[in-house]
Give the backbone structure.
Amino acid sequence: MLPAFLDHIEKFELCSKSDPILLAVSGGIDSVSMLYLFREAGYHVGVAHCNFQLRGQESDDDEQFVAAICKAFDIPVYVKRFETEAHAWENTLSTQMAARELRYTWFNELLKTHSYKRIATAHHFDDTMETILLNLIKGSGLDGFTGIPVRNGDVIRPLLFSSRKDIEQYALRKGIVWREDHSNNTDDYQRNFVRHHIIPKFKELNPSLENSWKTGLEKAKSEMNFLNHAYDEWKSIFVAISRDRAEISKEGLSRNQNASLLWRYIRTFGFNYDQSKEIIRALHGQPGKRFVSHTHNLAIDRDVLIITPRQQHWSEAIIDSDQPDASLGPWLLSVEKIETNDRIPSSQNVALFDASLLTFPLIWRKWKSGDYFYPLGLGHRKKLSDFFIDQKLSVADKDNVTIIECDGRIAWVAGYRIADQFKLGEKTSSAIKLTIRKG
């Protein structure tokens, strides 16, 4: 077992002998065996134990058991008790997801606080098989069929080479004592049902299931590496990312109408696969259609799909004459009175107004349907919606437009054009300078 353990670590470059490693030890056979293997290999380790307080006295006994092992081995141990059920209820999570969220947040804190290089968990190959089947049941994409990653950031899985049976045999040979989690014997969780009923049936069909699955998994990972390379190349050509948005060229999606390709990118913004299919269907329709996730908006524009963060409601800002600055959503505005009659600055984010024509307080708000103004130099009024068309503003750009209002009239479409009524003239002696910028 030890040679295979070390080969696995070396093959995937999980850690080096000089790295201090934090081991997640529950007290069960898998994690205690992992502790023995790291100790046998001569690594410098510490132990983190989570008491999720879900099994009453059993949970407390597990905690005491792990603490006793670490004391006997003279190994640092860190224990934390979690209000798991309360966290699950408050955040609308399953108990399992709540426990996962709590433990990994704490693990990351321990890594930073105590300077450990990696956190090792005791997942083995049977866990990978169960994960793949669960992902299949849930309709996962190809990524879900590669199982549990050997490494994910600072988290390493040094037992993924091994089956549950291999670990049991190692523990028996070494005389290892462990704690049994009796909840594993029930079918209360989906994973337990797969473990107790589905995997045994598969083994009836193929007694060498683990070996066959390892071969298939190796092929799948190689193919995924190829697909990831092609995907990265696609992104470099067809996706443009700036500070406040991502733009996907329609050309990159038009060739094969690939909803899966689109979903692979936009799922990171909270969009689901069904939305990806709807977006593909709407790709060459009338520009302007929008799609919404919990965190982002996606708008279909003329040549691109534009993804931007969802804007919270922006309350209007009231700007008094002695007020030097204000904020609205992501925007900051500075107000300055200057003694000049210079021409309007070349920057669109700066505007000058005749101070005698601009009366305070000013209202700063988002534009809304029906708004109109008298654009500088045009000579007649124009709806903002038509003005935006003339300016060739994208759907996403329109969402961020704000206006300065004076006595119920629009004085400035911020960042684009001032109104003709407030321009500097020959008799202007002083001006108000407004400057807008992203915060």
About this structure: The two ends are 57 Å apart (CA to CA). The chain has a mean pLDDT of 87.
